[in-house]
Structure formats: C-alpha cells, structure tokens
C-alpha cells in the first residue's frame, strides 16, 4: 500500500480512542454499563484493527513513512508541524500498545464492572491510548512531548482513580510530581535542540547530528542533550533516582498497573532513548551513563523485590528492574534488543499483573501474599497463565523472556560499548528475578490457603468491588481469563520472532540509518561464547527457581530464620533501603520547610501581605490624627478656610516678591 | 476722577469686614450676610478694574458672581429655615451633630 492510502488510516488511529474517551467521558454517567463497555471496546478495538491493517500493508522498502497532518508553530525559520511518522520502530510499538491495550480493555470490563466509576475508568483508559499513540507516532520531539505529558496525565488520573482513598490520591500526586522532575530534563533537552539544530523534527535533528563529531571525552552539547533526555526517560520509565513513584502507583486498579505501569507507558522512556539513538551514538559518555543507570536500577529494584509481601509491589519492583534491563541494552547500543525486551516484557508483565489482578479478585481484594497460598486448585486458569508468565520472566527457554533477556545480556557482554561488569550484574539480576518471581509463585499458588475464610475478610485494599466476601477463593469470569490466555500464548511465542536475529534485522533500518552498530559477531569463537553465556543465564534462572523452592516449599521455616540472621540488612531491604525516607529528608523536607519559612512566612506574609497591611495601617494612623480637624464646629471650619486662604495669599505674595 | 486705589481700599475693607463677621458671629444669618459682604467686596474690585482698564470681562464676571450669589441666597435661606425648624436655634455653635 502506498503512503497515500496509509495516511488517512494513521491519522484516524489516535483519534479513535480519543472519540471513545470523549463519548464515555461526556455521556457515560447516563449510559448503561453495557453501552460504556461497547463504546470503549469498539474504539480501542478499532484502533487495534487499524494498526493491524497498517502492519500488513507496511513494507520495509518504503519505510519510513511520514504523514504531515497540520501546521502548528511557524516562527521565522523555525517550524514545528503536526506530523506523524511510521517506521519499523513505531510499528512495533504501535502493535504492542494497541494489542496489549485492547486485551487489557477487555479485562477491565470484567475487573471494574462493579465499580461506581466504571464509565470514568473506561474513558481514562481510552484517553491513555490516545496519548500513547500520539507519543509513538510523533515525527518530532514536540508532538512526542504532547503524548509524553498526556500519558502522564492519564497515569495520574488512573493512579488516583479511587481518589477518596488518601493513599491513592497521594500516590497519584507523587507520580505526577516525580515525572515533572524528569520532564524538566526532557524540556531542556528540547531547548538545546532548538538552539543548536533549529528544529525538533527527528529526521532533521539526526541529519545534523551525523555531521557532528562524536564526543568521545568530556561533556559537549550532544552529551548534555543525551543526559537530559535520559533524565526525562528516568522519570517516565522509573529509573534510579526517579523510580520511587512506580511502586506507589500500584494504588491504582490492577488493569492500570498492567497497562500503564508495566506494559506501555513506562516503556516510553526506552522508546524515546531508542528513537534518539543517533544522539546517543554520538555521545558515548551519555550512553555509558544510560547503561550504568539501567544496570544499577535492574539490580537495585530486584533486591527490593525479594522482601516485598504485597503481590503487586513485587511486580512493581520487577517492572522497575526489567526496565533497567532495557536501558542497559540501550546503553550498550543494543537498541533493538532493548525494544525486543520491551515487547516481550509487555506480554509477560502485562499478563503477570492481570493474573495478579485475577488472584486479588478471586480472594476478595487481598494483596498480601502471606494470606494467599494454595490457589492453584481454586483458580486453575489463572494459575496456568501466571505460571507461563513467571517462567517467561525468569528466562526459561523457550519462553519469550528468555530470548529477549539473553539478547540483552549477550549484547551487554559483546557490544563495543559493553563490558563483562554489565553482564555479571545482569546475570545476578536474572538470578534474583527468578528467585523473587518463583517466591511469589510459590507463596500464591502452592501450600495451603492461608487467607481467612470467615465472613469478616474485608480487604478492600485494591478492590472497589462490593463482593460479599467470606467464601472460598474463586476463579475469575471469562471476560478476564480470555485476555490472560491470549497474553500467555504471546508470552510463549513472543520471543520466537527474535530467533536468528530476525527482530533485530527488522529494526535494523531504523538503528543503522546513521551510525554503525556494534560489529556483526559472526565468528565461531564468539558463537561459542554466546552459548556459554546463554547457558549461564539459564542456569541462573534455574538456580533462582531451586532456591525459591527450597525456601518456600521444602523448608518453609527457613526464610524467617534467614531474615533473622541477616537482621539489619533484611530490614533495610524490606523497607526498600529507606529510599523514600531519604528523599523525604533530602528533598521533600527542605522544600516544605523552605516553602513554609521563606515563601509563606517570609515572602507571602512578610513582604506581600505586609506591604498591603502596613499601607492600610499607616493610612489609619494618619487619619486618626487628621480627623480632629473635622470637629463639626462650623466656626472652626470657617477658621480653617480663612487660614487656608491666608496661606494662599501669603504664598502668592511671596512668589510675586520673588 | 477718583483713583483706582480708593476703590480697592474700600473693597479690601468690605472684604475684611466680611471675613471678620464670618469668623466671629454665631448667628447663622449674620454669617450669611458676611459672605454676601465678601462677595460684594470682590465685585467692587472687579468693576473698579474693569473701569480702569476699559475691559468688559470684569463686568461680565460681576454678573456671574451676582447670579451665583442669588442662587446661594435661595438655597442658603432654605437651609437656614430647615435648620431652624428642626433645631429651633440659629446659633451655629449648637448645630454641631457632625462633631467627633
């Protein structure tokens, strides 16, 4: 198909979910729940269908397509237009976002059915899809920024969906404000681009970057832009030091955690870094920083995940950790590996969250894994799909996670930007990942059910549902299980597209358009190394499985003793290394104190209010004195008049004399 | 021919009488008459200057002052009657409700 026929399809693509959001947002309150779900699913499904049509008519030979939609900013020689852009990278993102998004829409219908805010929820989800599609399809950084901010808004609305709950409202604010810190970096990067390249268009910026020398040492313009972009990506994709919002974002309904805080939105940072790969390739120092941040985040978040007891919190830290992998890949110039992991992660992490949601649904809103257990007999389908996802994220072949994670680890080792240090930390993280995922799996599905079955188990922590609790855990309805099964299928086969480097090959035109990528590693010796490393990472996954099995199945009293013997370290880990507390002391307290003492008491009360009040007081004091002239006595008035007249005459005489 | 200074001295005397009466007297009607005296003192200087300089504007001004004075007399006397009806006095020292 030619670009001319694709163009209308692409331009309506983001509009579809927006229409759904508008219809449900404006009329949802009066509509029946069936109508609301029909509208939401139709528009999201239509977007998915259009994405499929686009994908089938996409031909790599013609790519990239670009579709100008409207003029936007014209200022002298600088111009920014509303333009969409489709290449292999945005196509992959497009399919992942609309596909996984559509599945999660279906799931949400079942999950949120009993909630009073059903129409609001579906409307927000559609709104999110609109902004996410804008972000993906943008042809310049400014349109991308619209989507970037928009998904942040949708995320804020959905985290704080149960806004009557204080913790949810605070979590929404925390996410929004933390993201502002990152957006600040992103914006400054855009300003630098405008200053140096006089454009924000991807193509134009990258063309000019190609003509610049690679900044091998020191911090030049490109390194600065790269680092600032990374600040933005760290905010959106929850990397050190801005990751703190994501675990709290679990206050939102579980489908939101799955869609926004696991599968799609949080990967926007990875997408943005991959999109800006030309800049990073010309700024190796910035890329090194990306790799270090990614690697550290992967390890750091994984260790926190070990000691969490809330099922969603474990998955949240797991998401942070997996995003760290993606940034590690980007940091060693293995952008396609990063995007590959982004895709498989969307499948299995979306599935994990949805399955966790199904578990939470089934046990009546309980999120604490210590009160679960033995659920595999109660909810066989959830158990089956969640098992697939768990094995996938742990990196067992031939599931999806194995291929993408292995690709990243191999690139971390072999790329010219890579190092064995990255690889070692990566494998360690893979081991920890496998351990905490199987810990979750065993605690949730094996052993005996530890939840109370008495009628007073009202654990409304994640559920707005008005279930009458108390009976045994039950399997979820098919509208929820359907998406689980589809995602489970994708979690199995999703990695196969990467066999033989096919996925990398597909994305190659994007990532090789300018700078050279790490040299092809076709030699036999490196193939052997690759297989050895692959064996080690699989071994790490198996080891994690065995350790979890030992600790939580065969010798269940052991974890408590280990925790006891580790003492302070365990306490630090289970309290997330006190990072929130540290930030509270380092940043939040100074801001609050500064606002209170300087801005409120100092500037506002001391300067602004004081000016107004003192003027009024001064006027009153002067009037207090002057009003004595107004005695009410007519003859004293006459005296004042005469005296005034005399003064005037005296003045005039004096002037006349002069 | 009477020199201009005579008129001006007379005008000054009239005006000073008016001011003194205005300041000293307590009866509101006397005060009112003192004001008229001041106005006419000024009028006298106007016509004196007009005659001296052969300029008509001074005389025109006098007509304006007379009109204002007439209007003032009408309003002022009305106020005086109203004051007398309510307070039963014409002593301004006792008409002091606005006093602090």
Largest sheet of chain A: 2 strands, antiparallel
**DSSP E strands of chain B, number:** 0
Structural class of chain B: mainly alpha
The top-level CATH class of chain B is: Mainly Alpha
Which two protein chains have the largest interface (Cβ within 8 Å of the partner's Cβ), and how many residues from each? A-B, 11 and 13 residues
Runs of chain A in which pLDDT lies below 50 for 5 or more consecutive residues are 454-469, 513-522
Q: Judging from the principal axes of the Cα atoms, what is the shape of chain B?
A: elongated
Strands in their spatial order, largest beta sheet of chain A: 1-2
Radius of gyration of chain A: 30 Å
Arithmetic mean pLDDT of chain B: 90
Query: Roughly what fraction of the amino acids of chain A lie in strands?
Result: under 5%
As an assembly, this protein is: heterodimer
Total E-strand runs of chain A: 2
Q: Main β-sheet of chain B: number of strands, strand sense, barrel status?
A: none
Tally of individual helices of chain B: 3
Order of helices and strands of chain B: HHH
User: What distance separates the N and C termini of chain B?
Assistant: 55 Å
The CATH topology of chain B is Helix Hairpins
End-to-end Cα distance of chain A, whole Å, is 98 Å
Strand content of chain B: under 5%
Supply database-style keywords:
heterodimer, A: 658 residues, mainly alpha, two-stranded antiparallel ribbon, 25 helices, 2 strands, 3% strand, B: 100 residues, Helix Hairpins
Could you explain the architecture of this structure?
The complex is a heterodimer of chains A (658) and B (100). Chain A has 658 residues and is mainly α. Chain A has 25 helices and two strands. The longest helix of chain A has 48 residues. Chain A starts with a helix and ends with a helix. About 4% of the residues of chain A have low confidence. Chain B has one domain: Helix Hairpins (Orthogonal Bundle). The longest helix of chain B is centred in the C-terminal third of the chain and has 31 residues. The radius of gyration of chain B is 17 Å and the shape is elongated. Chain B has three helices and no strands. Chain B is 78% helix and 0% strand.
């Amino acid at each position: 198909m030619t670009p001319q026929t694709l163009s209308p399809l692409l331009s309506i693509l983001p509009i579809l979910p927006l229409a759904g959001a508008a219809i449900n947002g404006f009329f949802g309150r009066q509509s029946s729940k069936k109508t609301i779900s029909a509208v939401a699913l139709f528009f999201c499904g239509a977007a998915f269908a259009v994405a499929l049509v686009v994908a089938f008519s996409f031909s790599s030979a013609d790519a990239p397509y670009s579709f100008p939609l409207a003029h936007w900013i014209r200022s002298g020689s600088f111009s920014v237009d509303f333009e969409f852009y489709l290449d292999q990278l945005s196509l992959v993102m497009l399919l992942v976002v609309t596909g996984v998004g559509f599945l999660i829409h279906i799931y949400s219908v079942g999950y949120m059915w009993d909630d009073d805010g059903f129409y609001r929820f579906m409307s927000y989800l559609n709104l999110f899809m609109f902004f996410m599609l804008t972000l993906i399809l943008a042809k310049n950084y400014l349109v991308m920024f619209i989507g970037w901010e928009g998904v942040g808004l949708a995320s804020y609305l959905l985290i704080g969906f149960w806004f009557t709950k204080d913790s949810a409202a605070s979590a929404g604010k925390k996410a929004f404000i933390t993201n502002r810190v990152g957006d600040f970096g992103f914006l400054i990067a855009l300003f630098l681009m405008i200053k140096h390249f006089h454009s924000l268009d991807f193509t134009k910026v990258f063309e000019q970057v190609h003509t610049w020398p690679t900044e091998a040492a020191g911090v030049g313009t490109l390194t600065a832009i790269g680092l600032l972009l990374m600040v933005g990506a760290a905010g959106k994709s929850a990397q050190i030091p801005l990751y703190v919002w994501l675990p709290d974002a679990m206050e939102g309904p579980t489908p939101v955690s799955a869609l926004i805080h696991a599968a799609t939105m949080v990967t926007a940072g990875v997408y943005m870094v991959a999109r800006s790969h030309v800049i990073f390739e010309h700024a190796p120092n910035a890329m090194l920083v990306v790799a270090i941040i990614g690697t550290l985040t992967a390890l750091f978040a994984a260790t926190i995940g070990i000691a969490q007891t809330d099922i969603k919190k474990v998955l949240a830290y797991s998401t942070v950790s997996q995003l760290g992998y993606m940034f590690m890949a980007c940091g060693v110039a293995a952008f396609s590996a990063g995007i590959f992991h982004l895709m498989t992660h969307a499948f299995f992490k979306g599935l994990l969250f949805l399955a966790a949601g199904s578990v939470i649904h089934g046990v009546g809103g309980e999120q604490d894994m210590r009160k679960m257990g033995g659920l595999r007999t109660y909810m066989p389908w959830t158990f089956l799909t969640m098992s697939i996802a768990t094995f996938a994220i742990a990196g067992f072949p031939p599931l999806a996670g194995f291929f993408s994670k292995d690709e990243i680890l191999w690139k971390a080792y072999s790329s010219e930007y890579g190092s064995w240090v990255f690889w070692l930390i990566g494998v360690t993280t893979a081991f920890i990942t496998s351990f905490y995922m199987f810990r979750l799996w065993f605690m949730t599905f094996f052993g005996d059910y530890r939840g109370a079955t008495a009628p007073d188990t009202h654990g409304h922590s994640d559920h707005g549902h008005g279930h009458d609790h108390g009976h045994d855990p039950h399997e979820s309805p098919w509208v929820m299980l359907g998406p689980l099964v589809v995602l489970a299928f994708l979690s199995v086969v999703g990695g196969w597209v990467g066999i033989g480097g096919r996925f990398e090959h597909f994305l190659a035109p994007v990532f090789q358009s300018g700078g050279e990528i790490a040299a092809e590693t076709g030699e036999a010796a490196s193939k052997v190394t690759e297989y050895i490393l692959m064996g080690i990472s699989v071994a790490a996954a198996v080891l994690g499985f065995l350790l979890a099995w030992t600790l939580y199945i065969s010798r269940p009293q052991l974890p408590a003793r280990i925790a006891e013997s580790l003492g302070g370290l365990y306490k630090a880990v289970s309290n997330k290394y006190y990072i929130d507390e540290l930030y509270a002391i380092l940043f939040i307290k100074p801001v609050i104190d500064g606002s209170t003492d300087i801005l409120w008491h100092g500037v506002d009360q001391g300067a602004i209010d004081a000016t107004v009040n003192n003027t009024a007081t001064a006027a009153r004091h002067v009037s207090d004195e002057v009003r004595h002239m107004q005695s009410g006595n007519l003859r004293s008035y006459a005296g004042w008049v005469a005296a005034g007249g005399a003064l005037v005459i005296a003045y005039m005489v004096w002037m006349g004399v002069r | 021919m009477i020199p201009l200074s005579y008129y001006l001295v007379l005008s000054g005397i009239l005006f000073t009488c008016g001011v003194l009466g205005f300041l000293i007297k307590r009866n509101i009607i006397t005060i009112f008459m003192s004001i008229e005296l001041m106005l006419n003192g000024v009028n006298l200087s106007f016509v004196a200057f007009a005659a001296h300089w052969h300029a008509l504007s001074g005389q025109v001004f006098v007509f304006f002052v007379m009109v204002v004075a007439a209007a003032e007399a009408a309003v002022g006397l009305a106020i005086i009657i109203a004051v007398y009806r309510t307070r039963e006095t014409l002593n301004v020292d006792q008409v002091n409700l606005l006093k602090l």
